[in-house]
Design brief:
single chain, alpha/beta, Rossmann fold, Immunoglobulin-like, 3 domains, 25% helix, binds alpha-D-glucopyranose
């Protein structure tokens, strides 16, 4: 198939005129809240979206219609009244540790995209959660490259299985939003290969995304879109990536980006706003005319685009797919269920379904619905948002910064599941008022929410709008207090010791209210595990003060990612710091036991062990295998995991085989991965800081890959 795609791309490109070639290199935004005039390159009748690229009808090359993105088909004002399944946040999918669920979620996105005629989904956000303030962490998966790659690869495969091209993004190190267009991300190249780039490398190997989207920021001094070392050296060179490299929207400063490996300029109208001209417009044609853009490079740019089109099959669409929106809602519900993490439970949960307690439900606009993340990933759910409360903020992203409430009310869902209970809502507007209801209730469920999203990093880890004070007040008024967080990132919990239970539900998607109620009442056994570390304090992180935080949008910034590959739990292990809650942490209403760990070495590490449900109800667990010691320097690496669903008393044998790159260091001199001979220590645990069984094995020296 791919050989065929290469041959077809060569043949089609060879028959093109130069005009046709150039037309494939620019993606034009449709009319929306941001772009109010339709570009004449977009034919009448074309559904408006994030990007349009004309095809070449005489050669059977379809136009490319591009839409966002990972959490569903977005519609920020492009198509009047169009809605789509609003999946839970990517970080919730990360908490499921469930690649099969990621694939199902990708299928939802792919089918709903195709039913609208979109053949490119700008999905596959895989940037590592290096910084717990990063506004876009909700869109991504995790702080760990293996977990991120394992899930993003399946999500991309789910989209592409529907004949829709998926991107993977943002290549690379778009790990903060503050002044992202003027940010220079500095990192040791070998450490980059062992962290963010390893996530891209594994996901690209497994899923072959049709396109890679470069990031807004610079990396080690050069803009991502013109970073020849990364695009030509690593992506197209070492990894032999055959697809095409597109820019982020308005991220192409000049035609010269084409000489460094960028194949397509997207969001070209924003180029004009940011840089004064369309980078791949007349100036690229002029460069070609005066010989500065070689014909061979022009042909390669086009062939890469065509090759992905043929490999994924966007030219071979038959009848539109059957879109079962009820089924898609079930997948959204399952993703919410599996993404919810029970962080603390001093016996307050689950709520007994047949009791008739007085239950106070406080805050979080939970009488209306559940929050979603903001920016280009925000999806308008079926029936539209329950409410949009404007928040705003600096820069052009301020217009997209709103409290979007999806119509899935936790209050309504809790009431449905606890018919005998007396459920009463308080808006959580004032600590004193909330405490009055708490005082005369048997159980208090208080919500904490944050509006997080593209274009913004949080200034700290606190809950906004005085929610921490409300939680403190209700916990003081009633010790039987349960906190439910709906956030896109870790948050501080000054009230942690004063509450009986804590749940992190993230942005739980269009069925999130139901999922939260099911976990609270025990209808569903929580199984989520943290895909990111919850720091006790920003002082524990590599960068307590974020460079240029608070500076005006447009201020140049430099972030030295001096932690290198030691991201998240890896950093906490290296620094011997104890976080609030660790990567991999999550409680259940049952218990699990691990036994019979056997570790074999050689050219990689294989660990086998048994997991047993020793409790009295069905539940899913995610045992994790870590590297905890190596002959060439202490380091911690997640080597593997498996989500296992077990009945009471049931056991399952699990085998984890490590990708050798997780055992190796990247040798920049050699340009290869190097495994040092010697003894390697492995641990099996339920979280990065809860390791129950350990073993050692020997590995032989190896030098491999590129
Ligand atoms: C945005 C985002 C990118 C998105 C694109 C199109 O600014 O950075 O993730 O796909 O533009 O909306």
């Amino acid at each position: 198939m791919t050989g065929d795609a290469d041959e077809r791309a060569l043949a089609a490109e060879d028959r093109m005129t130069d005009d046709e070639r150039f037309s494939l290199l620019v993606s034009v935004m449709g009319v929306s809240d941001l772009i109010t005039v339709r570009d004449e390159r977009i034919p009448d009748g074309t559904p408006m979206s994030a990007g349009y690229v004309p095809g070449v009808p005489r050669l059977g090359v379809p136009a490319l219609l591009m839409s966002d993105a990972s959490l569903g088909v977005t519609n920020p004002g492009y198509r009047e009244g169009d809605t789509a399944t609003a999946l839970p946040a990517g970080i919730a999918l990360g908490a499921s540790f469930n690649p099969a669920l990621a694939r199902e979620s990708g299928g939802v996105v792919g089918r709903e995209a195709r039913s609208r005629g979109f053949n490119v989904m700008l999905a596959g956000g895989i940037n590592l959660a290096r910084d717990p303030r990063n506004g876009r962490n909700f869109e991504y998966i995790s702080e760990d490259p293996l977990l991120s790659a394992a899930l993003v690869a399946e999500s991309i495969s789910g989209i592409q299985a529907e004949g829709v091209i998926s991107t993977i993004k943002h290549f690379s190190l778009n790990c903060n939003e503050t002044n992202r267009h003027w940010l220079d991300a500095i990192i040791d190249p070998a450490a980059h290969r062992e962290s963010d780039l390893l996530a891209f490398e594994i996901a690209i190997e497994r899923a072959q995304p049709g396109s890679v989207m470069t990031a807004y920021n610079k990396i080690n001094g050069g803009y991502a879109g013109e970073n020849s070392e990364l695009i030509q050296g690593v992506l197209k060179g070492a990894w032999d990536y055959p697809g095409w490299v597109m820019s982020d929207w308005g991220a192409t400063a000049g035609w010269e980006f084409a000489l460094s490996g960028l194949d397509q300029d997207c969001g070209c109208q924003i180029d004009v706003l940011m840089w004064g001209a369309e980078a791949f417009g007349q100036s690229l044609r002029d460069a070609y005319a005066n010989g500065r853009l070689p014909k061979e490079r022009l042909s390669e740019m086009v062939r890469r685009i065509l090759r992905s089109m043929y490999a994924v099959g966007v030219d071979r669409w038959g009848a539109p797919p059957e879109v079962d929106m009820a089924r898609h809602n079930e997948i959204a519900l399952e993703a919410a269920r599996q993404g919810i993490v029970l962080l603390k439970n001093d016996g307050a949960l689950p709520l007994a379904p047949d009791s008739s307690p007085r239950i106070a439900v406080i805050g979080g606009h939970v009488q209306v619905g559940v929050p979603a993340g903001t920016g280009s990933t925000a999806v308008v759910p079926p029936g539209g948002y329950a409410e949009v409360i404007r928040v705003g903020g600096p820069s052009f992203m301020g217009a997209t910064r709103n409290l979007y409430l999806l119509p899935s009310s936790p209050v309504a869902e809790i009431t449905k599941l606890l018919p005998q209970a007396q459920v009463e809502f308080d808006p959580g507007m004032s600590p004193a008022e909330a405490a009055l209801l708490a005082r005369r209730s048997d159980v208090v469920i208080v919500f904490g929410i944050r509006v997080e999203g593209e274009g913004f990093d949080s200034a700290d880890l606190s809950l906004p709008w005085g929610q921490d004070a409300v939680i403190e007040a209700v916990a003081a008024a009633n010790p039987n207090t349960i906190v439910v967080l709906e956030t896109g990132n870790p948050v501080a919990m000054p009230w942690r010791d004063n509450v009986k239970a804590i749940i992190e539900a993230w942005y739980p998607g269009q069925a999130g209210g139901q999922a939260i109620a099911e976990i609270l009442t025990g209808a569903i056994n929580p199984s989520g595990r943290l895909p990111v570390t919850f720091p006790a304090d920003l002082a524990q992180t590599p960068r307590p003060d974020l460079p240029s935080m608070g500076e005006p949008w447009g201020t140049p910034a430099t972030i030295e990612y001096s932690e290198g590959a030691e991201v998240g739990y890896r950093w906490f292990a290296q620094q011997r710091e104890q976080p609030l809650y660790s990567f991999g942490h999550g409680l259940s209403y049952t218990r699990f036991d691990y036994s019979d760990l056997l570790v074999l070495g050689g050219d990689t590490i294989t660990a086998t062990f048994a997991v047993t449900n020793t409790g009295d109800r069905q539940g899913a667990d995610v045992p994790q295998v870590y590297l905890t010691g190596a002959p060439d320097g202490a380091r911690m690496r997640l080597l593997g995991f498996e989500r296992v669903d077990l009945k009471p008393g049931e056991s399952k044998q699990v085998t984890v085989t490590a990708d050798p790159r997780l055992l190796a260091r990247f040798d920049s001199e050699a340009g290869q991965w190097r495994i040092a001979a010697g003894t390697y220590r492995v641990a099996l645990g339920s979280a990065a800081d809860t390791l129950s069984l350990t073993a050692e094995t020997a590995l032989q020296a190896a030098l491999f890959g590129r």
